[in-house]
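pinging the channel bc i need a second pair of eyes. not urgent but kinda urgent?? the chain im working w is below, pasted from the shared doc
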Amino acid sequence: MSSPHRKEINRANAQHSTGPKTPEGKKHSSLNALRHGLTGQIVVMPTEDLHAYQLHLKSFTDDLDPKGAIEAHLVQALADASWRLNRVAALETNLLTMGIANATSPITDAPNQVQDAFSIVSALESQSKALSNLSLHSQRLSRQFERTVAQLRDLQKARQMKEDHELDNLLDIVEMYEAKGETYDASEDGFVFSEDRIDDAIRRRNRERLTEQAFDHHYAE
């Protein structure tokens, strides 16, 4: 067992530890911070803003509101595909910018607009292979994004239909107990709906019944 004195020394030494010291160690540590939380795959390049990616992922999560591990995984895949598509667009712009900066117009006495046009054409020609590869990469990511969206929508639709069916069953049970002057505890039968959601569903069912009664009464006259 460590003595109190040794514990104080260890605590003091820990205060002076600042992480990796060598360039290799710092680079490795940086890459670790950019790894995918589920698979370990690097999705954010060292030159990119990790905080921006986290906000990007949060926007997808807030918008799509995944429930369960599978939906969360699909939302993560969507955010990653979108992030990589944005990177492709940025790389394309960078390639063209670099090509334009290095291009020279054959007509040096032409107006600036003409020289700029020649520079753009020259940049497209010099970077054609790289731009073609980026285009193929972008198409693959777009197809992946569309397939993942379809998977997520189908999964969420099936979950919603199941929840609606279970909620309808729950309301039938609640009404049966109320008719007998008793209170029903939904949690005892494994229902996990919140009280607010149950109350909202009851009010919606009552409104629908009132609407149907008013409709029937109108046409009965």
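so The helical segments are 4-16, 23-33, 50-64, 68-102, 112-126, 128-179, 195-220. and Residues 128-179 form the longest helix (52 residues). — does that match what u expected or am i reading it wrong
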